[in-house]
Design brief:
heterodimer, A: 304 residues, mainly alpha, MetI-like fold, 2 domains, B: 315 residues, 14 helices, 2 strands
């Protein structure tokens, strides 16, 4: 039985690294045109935002959205973003980094440990526990946020960073992915070798497991990062004081102010430039870490 | 079977010692396995299980101005079942499930197949461009599209007037649901495409080579090999889309100041639950709505799973 399994996995290995099945010269102009027109739809809002962030309020209202205004006002806008309301934007940005960073690293680590155990250990109750976690993927955040708020207010931790971080540490889907990655990337023989050498289980996990989980870790980390970076509902419910807001909540509040009153109209260009600045870090992270999350997704997508 | 009996015969002599030894080792590895799982499970229990149970518990009570908090059993649920405002939100969600989700997943599938075929020039860049909106927070994408829809300096209006058409009011009551569908589609086509594309990349090349020897066309290839191979990825993306559709909140909540007449308190079920809890202070009823919503999502997700399983059996 085991030899059969080994043989089949040995057969599968080289196929996963197949070369892309394309030959030079086999191109279709029609498809190329169709795809690039579609790409315009996805690029359009971001181009609009980029161009709008170079305009002052007057140009925003009086010039065409997809071309630049009379003068480049980008740097003035950036200065506005960082100085308006005593520079609260910097505060929001730091909060976002803090909440998203701690939540994503924490959630990924918890998921990696659990996924590793589910993939590489046989222990009583593992099947039941894993299917409970799988079922939890379907529990909507909504059903949880309101009772979590009530419970947190009884413990007195609403309106603190913990109120945003603690619920974000649970990632059932992360456990599922990590189990797939661990089963794929960490050979049992290596764990056995570590045990024979007398290494503790924790040490085997840190020194062998985590290292081999590389692309999988980056993938789960990125997706957790996006989830907390982009979260709006949870901070909206949990946080009262604006110096604790993440960027999403702060920008929404600024936009509501500028939409509400003609007097505060000056904020439009600030909100737009602030929004532009806020999407840059995640896009850069995705571009830089492409190689990792694409391998990670390839493994995860197939087996999950 | 045979091997088992021989091995047990073989170890008969040393049995007592050996069993004790393996069980001690086994117990130790079990303990460390629990050690690895425990941190996640503790947080899981505290942040998922307890709030869910608590939500179910408080949904069984009503707070009255006179008489305080009373146990009323399933009365809140009876109210939810008959609540036209809850139905209204669910109706919109149903429209999203029937219109937006198929369009979004269909586009994702077409793009994934097109990129995988290698027939389009600049595939790598295209893939990144289509995926990029996923990294944009829904708050920013809603603000962005909201401004572009708007009458003040909206791009859509500018484009329409430049070719001599009247500027459409995309924030009016009859249209705004479709405007929201557009935002969601824009944001999530790329994410779904990447999941499908990854699954396509995992199809072994021998399969293609065999099909090519048989003279299969690209469309035949897509229909007979690629789409069947995508089934798990399609199931995953469908379930995620169902869950996401029921939870739409950011779009109505940020667009409502721009379109106060078009977006009421109960535009989507999730927005309704939020308004009940934090604007109307009807916490118990809000918990019942949120809990019912969770149940509806579970039922729909399982229905999706079952229907794909039945198809697989039928084949």
């Amino acid at each position: 039985m085991t030899s059969q399994l080994n043989a089949s996995s040995r057969l599968q290995k080289p196929t996963r690294r197949r070369k892309p099945f394309t030959r030079e010269g086999r191109r279709s102009n029609l498809l190329t045109i169709f795809m690039w027109i579609s790409a315009v739809y996805f690029l359009l809002p971001i181009s609009w935002l980029t161009i709008a962030s170079t305009k002052d309020n007057r140009d925003l209202f009086s010039t065409f959205g997809l071309w630049f205004g009379r003068e480049n006002n980008f740097f003035n806008n950036v200065v506005d973003v960082f100085t308006v309301q005593d520079g609260v934007y910097v505060r929001w940005a730091l909060n976002t980094f803090y909440y998203a960073g701690v939540s994503a690293v924490g959630a990924t680590l918890l998921a990696a440990m659990a996924g590793y155990a589910f993939a590489r250990f046989d222990f009583p109750g593992d099947k039941i526990l894993f299917s409970i976690i799988l079922g939890a993927i379907m529990i909507p955040m909504t059903a949880l946020a309101i009772p979590t708020y009530l419970l947190f207010s009884q413990v007195g931790i609403t309106n603190t960073p913990w109120a945003v971080i603690l619920p974000s540490l649970v990632s059932p889907f992360g456990v599922l992915l990590m189990r797939v990655y661990a089963a794929d990337a960490i050979p049992s023989s290596l764990i056995e070798a570590g045990r024979v050498d007398g290494a503790s289980e924790a040490r085997i996990f840190w020194q062998v497991g985590l290292r081999l989980l590389g692309p999988g870790l980056v993938t789960v980390l990125l997706f957790n990062l996006v989830a907390t970076w982009n979260n709006y509902f949870l901070p909206l419910i949990m946080l009262r004081s604006s110096e604790l807001y993440p960027l999403t909540l702060g920008l929404a509040q600024q936009s509501a102010i500028s939409a509400a009153g003609g007097g505060a109209q000056a904020l439009f260009s600030t909100v737009i430039t602030g929004s532009f600045i806020s999407i840059v870090p995640l896009i850069v992270a995705f571009l830089l870490l492409q190689r990792y999350w694409r391998t990670g997704l390839a493994t995860g997508g197939v087996k999950a | 079977m045979n091997a088992q009996t021989t091995s047990s015969v073989k170890t008969k002599n040393t049995r007592p010692v050996k069993v004790r030894k393996t069980s001690r080792v086994k117990r130790r590895t079990n303990l460390s396995a629990y050690g690895f799982v425990a941190p996640f499970l503790i947080i899981f229990f505290l942040m998922l299980f307890i709030p869910l149970a608590y939500s179910g518990y408080i949904s069984l009570f009503i707070e009255r101005i006179v008489g305080g908090i009373n146990f009323v059993g399933l009365e809140n649920y009876a109210r939810a079942i008959e609540d036209p405002r809850f139905h209204e939100g669910l109706g919109r969600t149903a429209l999203i499930l029937l219109i937006q989700v198929p369009i979004m997943l269909g586009l994702a599938l077409i793009f994934a197949l097109a990129l995988d075929s290698g027939y389009a020039r600049g595939s790598n860049l295209l893939r990144l461009l289509i995926f990029m909106p996923y990294a944009v927070p829904s708050v920013v994408s809603t603000l962005m599209w909201g401004y572009m829809y708007g009458q003040n300096f909206g791009l859509v209006g500018q484009l329409a007037t430049s070719i001599g058409l009247p500027a459409p009011d995309l924030l009016s009551p009859g249209v705004i649901l479709f405007s929201i569908m557009n935002i969601v589609t824009w944001a999530f086509v790329g994410y779904n495409m990447i999941i499908m594309y990854s699954a396509l990349k995992a199809i072994p090349s021998e399969v293609y080579e065999a099909a090519e020897i048989d003279g299969a066309s690209q469309f035949r290839l897509a229909w007979s090999i690629k789409i069947p191979a995508l089934r798990p990825a399609l199931l995953l993306t469908t379930i995620f889309s169902v869950i996401g559709s029921f939870q739409i909140f950011v779009e109505p909540s940020l667009l409502s100041p721009l379109a106060p007449s078009a977006i009421g308190q109960s535009f989507t079920p999730n927005y309704y639950a939020y308004n009940l809890a934090f604007v109307n202070s009807e916490l118990n009823y809000a918990a019942a709505i949120a809990f019912s919503l969770g149940v509806v999502i579970m039922i729909v997700s399982y229905a999706v799973q079952l229907s794909t399983q039945r198809k697989r059996v039928a084949e």
